Amino acid sequence: MSGDYDRYISGAVIPVVATAAAERLRRRIIDVVGSVIETNSIRMAGNLLHCQLKNLPPELNNPECMAEIAHLLFDFIQGSFPTRKRPIPFILNVLHKPTDSDHTTTVLGYAPIYQLERHIEVDTRDGDRVTETHNQELRLQFGPVFREAAKASDARDSLVNNVLDTSIVQIPLTAFSGFLESVYLKLKSVEDDLITVDEQEEQRERERAEERRRVEEEEERAWRDDLPEDIETSDDEGPLGSPTAKERERARERVERPKVRKRRRLVKRGTKRRPPSEPEAEAEAEAEAEREREGEREEVQVDGAGDTPVEGEGEREREAPPASGPEGDEGEREGERVGERVAESVSDEESRDLI
263 and 295 in one domain? Predict the structure, then answer.
């Protein structure tokens, strides 16, 4: 029996017996692990396992099958936590002790050691931020209940003291569910501690950001206080940075400037003429009528150049009103047409200006 103890303590892992019965047991254990996932209760899984193992047939009540059970459960416990906890493989074997009627099976294994890796950003003397990696070993310490159970299971064996000294625990199957729960709770407390540490680090980062923002606001306030008063405010309209009346007027001019430029271009090109005023239009119409009358007189003089005028006849012609006839009617009609053209040109200019 001591040889078996030596073999287990040395760390040799017993391979699982490849039999149909062992495979059936493996499926049952997987079902138990599945119930742990569904119920999230290590205590319930341990109790179910304890009930199943008590009803095992004799051919399955052997160290190989029990070792497989233990490995499956502890693999699940390790896999249910974040990857930043990197568990160091530990030895967990199950011994069959037919001499103990109350405890037919004893779990024997090394206490698991978990390597906790934390990445912390720290400030250097130069003001840079670097990441430091801190490794922390977590050794699970089991309570006095398990130690007393381990002593009571084989108090006559001299290896018990060595087991306790080397962090190897020997637990009866009746306390196996409590053992699993203690492992789970210990890991859970470590997880909560790490979460608390992360939250504290985030809180410190927020405080540093708030401090930087406050310093920047104080520097900006001091810079504004150093400015002259006539620069800080203009036209009594708001502090520095707000649009003043002059700035708004300049912005309005910039918006209206394209329209002014377009109008000037049109005036230069002659496509948009200024309409004449009423006095100018009347003077232009009278001048045009006068020019027409002068032209008519010249034509009359040219036609009557061969006749010798009688004395006093020219004066009578000038004093007499214009004779009614084809020539007089034609002159009046020509004057009316000139007046109509002038009026039409004025009305066209006014309409274009309105458009």
Answer: no
Amino acid at 145: V
Same-domain pairing of 266 and 277: no
Nearest to 275 by CA among 191, 345, 186, 329: 345
Cβ distance 65 to 53 under 8 Å? no
Q: Domain for residue 85, yes or no?
A: yes
| Non-local CB neighbours of 337 within 8 Å, separated by 6+ positions | none
Length of the chain: 355
Q: Domain tally for the chain?
A: 3
8: nearest Cα among 75, 53, 70: 70
Q: Which two tokens stand for residue 211?
A: 């401090």
**Per-residue pLDDT tens digits for 285-341:** 888 888 888 877 766 565 555 555 445 555 444 455 554 455 556 666 666 676 666
- In this prediction, residue 202 has a pLDDT band, given cuts at 50, 70 and 90, of confident
Q: Residue 198 to residues 192, 203, 258: CA-CA distances in angstroms?
A: 10, 9, 61
